[in-house]
TrEMBL record, chain B:
This is DUF742 domain-containing protein. It comes from Kibdelosporangium phytohabitans. InterPro entries: DUF742 (IPR007995). The lineage of its organism: Bacteria, Bacillati, Actinomycetota, Actinomycetes, Pseudonocardiales.
Length: 201, 120
């Protein structure tokens, strides 16, 4: 017991970095985990997120029965931005019934990337609806599963019924730089949204 | 006895499952991306702690998020939050929570853009 004592001081006396986050949403199997893995500097970690009454308490929508508990797997990774800022990416399944977990994930997020697979477009409706209603800046990213699109992007926009203000990009979840560019689209959207807010009377 | 609910020492002793019936003894709403770093006090007190609390103190000698703590120790995220909040209330860990204004903070967004742009 005593031999395990570690009397040496903590190695890094500096203060922890400021955490910021982007949520990565979309239906099952659209490439959320792949995207996180491509760009994260740590192998994606998985946590079973249990949302209990404690989470319900802070859900401003008030839709949540106070004793609800459910478990969802969420994958996440991170990117060091600079000495004092660390970006987290949280990949979450976009199911309606997990809506109350999203508040928890989404509160304070810079924005969201909604990944879609054009073969199963309607899988992303819950995510699109949620971010629209929650006022979270988001970008729809079509994952190029076969290296080609079988839909024209305008068709996708039409099918999703998203406004022209929602940026639509294509990307490859397996490629780091492609994921980076999709995230940059989210951040540029977040920037212009914040600018509009700041300029508003 | 329930009158001592806001005493962090009391909260440290209670099992997690007892929390649902109680009013918040400590702020347990820590964000999952909040950073957790073991303090000097925590590092020197590690031998007084047991189980998960001890694991957290050892793990967070390298700063990491609450989500990472949960994943690495295979704890439910709700449990990790409660334990981290309790350890923070005792001064065993230092936490850095995200700023509420971040989504409106143009300079922060620009900074993240620059950081990502430099990824190769
Ligand atoms: N060809 C191709 N395959 C991909 C691409 N992105 C993901 N995949 C594959 O599609 C499958 C599902 O990808 P995941 O990243 O696990 O998807 P997910 O959204 O995390 O899935 P769930 O967590 O189960 O909802 C995996 O087998 C990936 O290898 C892509 O751009 N092209
Ligand atoms: Mg996944």
């Amino acid at each position: 017991m005593d031999s395990n004592r570690s009397a040496d001081p903590v190695l890094a006396p500096k203060k922890p970095p400021a955490p910021v986050k982007i949520v990565i949403a979309g239906g099952f199997g659209v490439g959320k985990t792949t995207a996180v893995a491509s760009i994260s500097e740590i192998p994606p970690l998985r946590t079973e997120a249990v949302m209990t009454s404690a989470a319900a308490e802070i859900d401003r929508t008030g839709h949540v029965p106070s004793k609800t508990t459910t478990t969802v797997a969420m994958d996440f990774g991170c990117i060091t931005i600079d000495d004092d800022v660390k970006l987290y990416l949280f990949g979450t399944p976009g199911q309606d019934r997990f809506g109350f977990m999203w508040h928890d994930l989404v509160v304070g997020a810079l924005g969201a990337l909604v990944i879609v697979d054009t073969r199963r477009l309607d899988d992303c409706y819950p995510a699109v609806d949620y971010f629209e209603k929650a006022g979270v800046p988001f970008v729809v990213a079509v994952n190029k599963f076969d290296g080609m699109l079988n839909h024209d992007l305008n068709d996708v926009r039409w099918a999703l019924a998203v406004s022209d203000e929602v940026p639509l990009v294509t990307f490859d979840a397996r490629e780091k730089l492609s994921v980076r560019d999709a995230l940059l689209a989210v951040l540029r959207k977040a920037f212009s949204r914040a600018q509009t807010r700041t300029a508003a009377p | 006895m329930s009158g001592r609910a806001d005493d962090p020492d009391v909260s440290l002793l209670r099992p997690y499952l007892m929390t649902s019936g109680r009013t918040k003894p400590v702020d347990h709403t820590i964000e999952i991306e909040a950073q957790v770093m073991t303090s000097n006090l925590g590092a020197t007190s590690v031998q007084n702690l047991t189980f998960e609390r001890r694991d957290i103190i050892s793990l967070c000698r390298r700063t990491m998020s609450v989500a990472e703590v949960a994943a690495m120790l295979k704890l439910h995220i709700g449990v990790a939050r409660v334990l981290v909040a309790d350890l923070a209330a005792l001064g065993y860990v230092v936490i850095r929570r995200p700023e509420a204004e971040t989504p409106q903070d143009l300079r922060m967004i620009e900074r993240v853009i620059r950081g990502l742009e430099s990824l190769r």
